[in-house]
Design brief:
Elements (H helix, E strand, L loop, with lengths): L4 H27 L6 H48 L1 H31 L5 H7 L6 H20 L22 H11 L1 H11 L15 H19 L16
Helix pairs in contact: 1-2, 3-5, 5-6, 5-7, 5-8, 7-8
């Protein structure tokens, strides 16, 4: 098992320092300087003790780092083993979730279709979207927005028949709920989206059928893009103020 590089270097340096201090300690003993050798001898002994203490500390750090490394390796191996042994199960769950989402999506489209065909949209849809428009473009946009609302209500288990979103999340938290952020931006522009879709396809139509549902989302998206383009054109370009003439005649 490889040791952390900086700890290995620390141990090597401390070991060399111990050896050097030990040589310094042996030198005055070999020369027999008597009183004159006492001070260098004491200083060398102190340095050897300090270096030995640093060496022991470095060795303890290496041992602790090795223990943490072993624990991390064991944890990583266990995680990898769990991923490998549950791959098929996770794939099965993903397929099941995809099938459930597809089934719920189809059910939402059918639900909106029945509401429009029976001319009995719930109050919460009428409050947000108004009455179903008479034109083909308006109907497609209205139904597309209604599906978006139903999707949000299904995901958040909202059953309130009087309010589309029950207790609405605070707008300051919209970034933490991407679904709410998307549906909120769509609903804010609901009237403008429906009007734009009606203008794009004003042909009157009495009844909406299931085959028309494949155009609902596209109708909403196209209307949104048109609105964004109009807003960009309506935004005034920044003007550059001319510098005042100081009469210097440059």
């Amino acid at each position: 098992m490889s040791e952390p590089r900086f700890l290995v270097d620390m141990v090597r340096f401390a070991t060399s320092q111990v050896a050097r201090r030990a040589r310094e300690l042996d030198e005055p003993q070999r020369r027999h300087w008597g009183r004159r050798s006492k001070s260098p001898f004491d200083e060398a002994s102190r340095k050897v003790s300090e270096t030995a203490a640093r060496l022991n500390d470095a060795r303890d750090r290496v041992a602790q780092a090795q223990e943490r490394l072993r624990a991390e390796q064991v944890s990583a191996a266990a995680r990898q083993h769990a991923l490998e042994t549950t791959t098929d199960e996770c794939d099965e769950y993903r397929r099941a979730l995809h099938e459930i989402d597809a089934a719920l999506g189809a059910a939402r489209v059918q639900r909106v279709l029945e509401l429009v065909q029976d001319e009995s949209p719930p109050f919460y849809l009428l409050e947000v979207l108004g009455e179903v428009p008479p034109s083909r473009g308006g109907q497609r946009a209205w139904c597309g927005l209604a599906v978006e609302i139903e999707h949000y209500r299904d995901r958040h288990a909202i059953t309130n028949e009087l309010m589309a979103f029950d207790v609405e999340p605070k707008l300051g938290h919209a970034t933490s709920d991407k679904h709410w952020s998307r549906v909120h931006n769509v609903i804010v522009d609901a009237d403008a989206i429906i009007d734009a879709a009606q203008a794009a396809n004003p042909i009157a139509r009495d009844r909406i059928d299931a085959a028309d549902s494949r155009f609902w989302t596209a109708s909403v998206v196209d209307a949104q893009r048109g609105l964004e383009a109009m807003r960009e054109l309506a935004t005034p370009e920044p003007t550059i103020e001319a510098e005042p003439d100081l009469g210097l005649g440059w």
